[in-house]
Design a protein that fits this description.
This protein starts with a strand and ends in a 10-residue tail after the last helix. Helix 1 (14-30) packs across helix 15 and helix 12 (296-302) packs across helix 14 (347-364). The protein is α/β, with parallel strands linked by helices and 401 residues long. The relative contact order is 0.13. It has a 7-stranded parallel β-sheet, with helices on both faces. Strand 2 (33-38), helix 2 (50-53) and strand 3 form a beta-alpha-beta unit. Helices cover 44% and strands 15% of the residues.
């Protein structure tokens, strides 16, 4: 089967890691011909392009496929994607993210691609944005949804949101958790030398947060609860992994609040460096108000770390109350403080939650599990579409490169 994935940009992020793992996994595990089309990677979040650049012909960059709304570029990207699909003749186009998801699916339909799949990594519409933007993105998803053969969602919560918006039927959706290489996280340890490198002592209770330094990621809430946490437990430190447009703002906030000694900013780190950083954390907190299923949560659990998360989108499907961590109503600062102090004061509880979480992630989040699930889904979709005459027809000629 020839499969082309399309994504808006290959920044360092969960959706992008998921997409690359899918493309490489289907190629290496099943020998399928997979390709990836992406818009240009720009911004402080870093790029994952080096992970695929070494494979000839796998990655195609489309300069007009940019994240902001841009009528001229959007029309140009749609036209070029349509032409690319007509020439390459993929059996299936699989899109990711908002802009690429809409333009890619419409272009695939115009080009006559037999099967069109879209992964929902996070909501494109919702109360986190203004009325106009919410209306535009909802209508765009509804339009693209009408030409979509099947949806993949990384969380059941996203399926419910899209069904509530009138997009597709329940049978059109499959939940496939966003898998990743578990081994580095399973092997992560509390490396005291790494702690020392970041100014963390062996006795510090380290609360980690892995997220872009940007709006809706919950860093403001973390700074709001820091004074009470530190007052009640002076050995608490915060290790913030990630970069973004708001980094200078948060570093200044740490200084002006007088709590700079308790915050460590790692900046942008390559994905391969994340497991070691998770290893030195005692707990991982996730306070995003908009996230499909935050990748940081299963990564923390894979390393045996308890998690505390806002009960948004798919977080509850991994952060299970008093089983792998604690769920908190968004904005409930007193409850956040209570949960974190409970973990700090009860190491046995933290270990129990971490062990349970590790077992859960082993079962559901291995990258091989994700790739195998995609492979089964693609085959089922192809089989459901074929007529008896098509099933007996000779193989299609190779694509024109």
């Amino acid at each position: 089967m020839r499969v082309t994935h399309v994504i808006t940009r290959l920044i360092v992020g969960g959706a992008q890691e998921n997409t690359i793992a899918s493309v490489l996994g289907l190629r290496e595990r099943y020998g399928w011909e997979t390709r990836l089309i992406s818009g240009p990677t720009q911004g402080a979040e870093g790029s994952l392009e080096p992970l695929v650049n070494h494979l000839p012909g796998l990655l195609t960059l489309e300069p007009a496929l940019v994240r902001p709304l841009h009528p001229w570029n959007d029309v140009l990207a749609y036209s070029r994607l349509t032409r690319c699909f007509r020439v390459g003749r993929p059996d299936l186009v699989h899109t990711h993210s908002g802009k690429a998801g809409v333009l890619g699916r419409l272009a695939a339909r115009r080009a006559g691609v037999p099967l069109i799949v879209h992964t929902i990594h996070g909501p494109s519409f919702g109360p986190f944005q203004g009325w106009l933007a919410n209306t535009v993105f909802r209508q765009a998803e509804q339009r693209a949804g009408r030409v979509t053969t099947h949806f993949v969602a990384v969380a059941e919560a996203l399926i419910e949101q899209y069904l509530a918006a009138g997009i597709g039927r329940r049978a059109d959706y499959t939940r496939i958790f966003s898998g990743f290489d578990l081994t580095p996280f399973l092997n992560a340890t509390n490396d005291l030398q790494l702690r020392a490198r970041w100014g963390l002592s062996p006795d510090d209770f380290v609360i980690g947060k892995i997220a872009r330094l940007f709006k809706l990621k919950g860093h403001d809430d973390l700074f709001a609860l820091a004074p009470e946490l530190v007052r009640r437990c002076p050995r608490i430190k915060f290790l913030l992994v990630g970069d973004g447009d708001w980094r200078a703002r948060f570093e200044n906030l740490a200084r002006t609040s007088g709590f700079a000694p308790h915050f460590r900013f790692t900046g942008l780190v390559p994905p391969a460096a994340v497991p070691a950083l998770v290893g030195v954390m005692d707990a991982v907190i996730h306070l995003s108000r908009r996230e499909g299923l935050p990748r940081a949560l299963p990564q923390a659990l894979a390393a045996g770390k308890p998690v505390v998360a806002y009960d948004c989108d798919g977080a509850r499907e991994v952060c299970r109350e008093d089983e792998t961590g604690f769920l908190v109503r968004p904005g409930d600062t007193p409850r956040l403080v209570q949960c974190l102090l409970r973990l700090e004061s009860d190491p046995a509880l933290a270990r129990r939650l971490g062990r349970c979480g590790q077992q859960f992630v082993r079962q559901h989040f291995a990258v091989e599990t994700m790739v195998d699930a995609l492979h089964r889904l693609y085959q089922q979709l192809a089989a459901a579409r074929r007529t008896p005459s098509e099933m007996n027809a000779p193989a299609r000629p190779p694509a024109i490169s």
